[in-house]
Amino acid sequence: MTVSKSLSSCIFLFPFQDVTQQDEDAHNGMLNSSFEKKVRPFLDLIDNLRAVGVEQDVSLPTVAVIGDQSSGKSSVLESLSGVQLPRGNGIVTRCPLALKLKRGGLNWKCKIKYQTAEQQFAEDIMDPSDVGEAVLEAQRMLAGFQKGISKELITLEVESSCTPDLTLIDLPGIARIAVEGQPPDIERKIKQLILSYIEREETIILVAIPCNVDIATTEALNMAQQCDPSGKRTVGVLTKPDLMDPGTEFGAIRVLNNESIKLTKGYVMVKCRSQRDVEGNMTLEDAIEVEKSFFETHSVFKSIEGKCTTQVLANKLTTELVGQIKHLLPGLRKEVDKNFDETMEKLNKLPLAVPTEKKTRFFFINGLIMKYTTDVHSSALGDYYRNFKENRMIYAKARRCFAKWLRFVKDHEETFIRDLNNTIQTCMTSNTGRELPGFVSYHVFENLARQHIAMLETPALDILKEVSDIVPRIANALADDNLGFLPELAKSVKMALEELKEKQCEEAKTLIQKIFKMESQIYTQDVLYSNFLDNEESENLEEPFPNKSSHKAVTPKKLTTWLNLSVNEINSGTCQKDIEVMSKHLTAYVKIAQNRLCDHIPMVIRHHLLHEFSSQLQMELALLIQERNVEELVEEDPEFASHRKHLCAKAKRLEEARRILLVPFTSIPSAD
Q: Dynamin-type G domain: which residues (predicted)?
């Protein structure tokens, strides 16, 4: 088919002028050239951003075209683009279709692009009559051969002397009832897809509304009002004015004049090719002339100026889109910069990618192991050279366990001292033979001290168990942090550290048991013991019986206490003085022994499970990577590799977007 005719049959961006055809062509040519210089840089800017894919990361200004089924939406897009798009009953647009229209030279150019799960397609279309089938084929590739829809975008780039400078997104028409081949929830899916575009504040909403239906029942307009209550982003396009019943035109004029359902950006009326016109082989160029004649000769609509024809709509949409771009451009730059910084921060936190060269992989793994073991060593010894998270601090958590051990020992000591006199009396009564009072039994002393110390062994082993649970848990977490992207290496490291932990835990347990076995052999330095004993005696400020040299009055209460003590001594056969002496000796020794245990148990655990564990781990892992097949260890987790690839691609997109947006505001001419 013929691609271009005379300029008079093309879609210009300005209203018709009441001048001769030759003057009109010249005048329109100059105006269009001037207008193009003003608007094209803005549109190119957004198209270039969309071309690098940055729309995945930030919302770009665009015009989204929506409408109910059979609203004439596709016909409007045909008139604007100059190419024949798929037509028919039911859902024709099954994927979002980005129409990038560019006013260019005399040669018509068109390219279709889309991305499937397997590959990216880009194909030049040589003839306008082939566009419809190319779009249908793309829809079949993305949405299947039935009648379902897809959210994947098809891009159609059209350049000719007869198209406006404009980019639109055509969205599926709203279906009310699912037909054969469609999912039952087709209406919900279409609305979700439409909302994903028109909810964005950056989007201008173009709503196709047939003149021959009640505007209040138009679902597309209702959706636009929900997302844009003020109507500041919505443009209404009234279609099919030739199908109105005679006498109903004045209702359409009320809508067109914004007197019915008000939109800040108003309405435009167009008359496009009908299905009968298409079947009658009416060209798009002829359709423009027919539209012009329809509005110039219509008894009602001929009085409406500046609100009818496709060229008025094209001019309005271009102006609105450029205005939206100008308004959003400063914020868009900031959003791209912010997204880029956040993406680079995430990328910098990721480990380096596995080298492709085999000879460098060993050094790569060795570096990872050194970094990991350094982290474990620092965490275990409390040397936090970097900002460890609280849940990555082994020593801090072990220290809490040691403090818990100290509290338990001190609480146990208080309980022991509180019940000591009764315990001593019971023990001495059952063990006293023919000794006279004053001869304290060392055998009783040893038994009581030994019993008390032995009661601390199980709690000490419990503390060991707590710390032995903490160490591998945090070491495993650090392994995930450092090595998680290499599953086989992380798995091998975790197995090695578990074996090492068991070994060190067993050694610590054996040593703790030896310590308690040694503590069962009552011993301390004589001088140290004497000092503790002196301290106990000095703390005893009040004697149970009155001092003969004391001249303090004896109260009835104290006298009763002494009498009771004397009676108890007679009944038990044990001298209270002997109990006091034994109590002082036991208290002094228990404090000495417990002080030793308060330090020794944490020191044993610290030595084996913190220091030795972290020190030997590096040697164990160095041996591991020498014995194992390096190729197995460097196999990267697919999800992690995909995540890195995604971030790298995103960073690349955003970096390219930053470059595009570096164009100074002053270098873009005003579109006003």
A: 57-330
Residue showing tokens 């009581």: 448
Q: pLDDT tens-digit profile of 114-172?
A: 988 778 889 999 888 888 889 989 988 888 877 788 888 899 998 888 777 788 898 98
Q: What is the pairing mode between strands 97-103 and 166-170?
A: antiparallel
List the structure tokens of 324.
């939206």
* Three-class secondary structure of residue 147 per DSSP: coil
**Which pLDDT does position 492 carry in this prediction?**
92
Query: Percent of the chain beyond pLDDT 90?
Result: 32
The H or E element spanning position 166 is strand 166-170
d(CA 453, CA 591): 10
DSSP secondary structure letter of residue 664: -
DSSP calls for 199-216: TSTTEEEEEEEETTS-GG
- C-alpha 252: how far from its chain's center? 49
- Give residue 637's pLDDT: 85
Residues 15 and 119 in one domain: yes
Radius of gyration of the chain (CA): 45
Domain membership of residue 583 (yes or no) is no
Asked whether the beta carbons of 211 and 243 are under 8 A apart, the reply is yes
Q: 84 near 129, Cβ under 8 Å? A: yes
> CA–CA separation, 587 vs 176, rounded Å?
89
CB 96 within 8 Å of CB 153: yes
Residues 439-484 have pLDDT tens digits of: 567 787 888 889 889 999 999 999 999 999 999 999 999 999 888 8
Containing domain of residue 410, as a range? Answer: 358-432+440-525+597-635
Across all residues in the chain, what is the average pLDDT?
A: 82
Structure tokens at 8: 């008079």
Q: Hey, is 115 helix, strand or coil?
A: strand
Q: How many CB atoms sit inside 10 A of residue 245's CB? A: 7
Q: Phi then psi for 461, rounded to 5 degrees? A: -70, -30
Residues 6+ positions from 333 with CB-CB distance below 8 Å: 661
Single-letter residue type at 67: G
The reply to whether 379 and 327 lie within a common domain is no
Tell me, yes or no, whether 566 lies in a domain. Answer: no
Q: Verify that 392 and 322 share a domain, yes or no.
A: no
The C-alpha angle 54, 57, 59, rounded to 5 degrees, equals 85
Q: DSSP assignment, residue 24?
A: H
Task: Give tens-digit pLDDT for 604-641.
Answer: 999 999 999 999 998 999 888 887 777 788 888 888 88
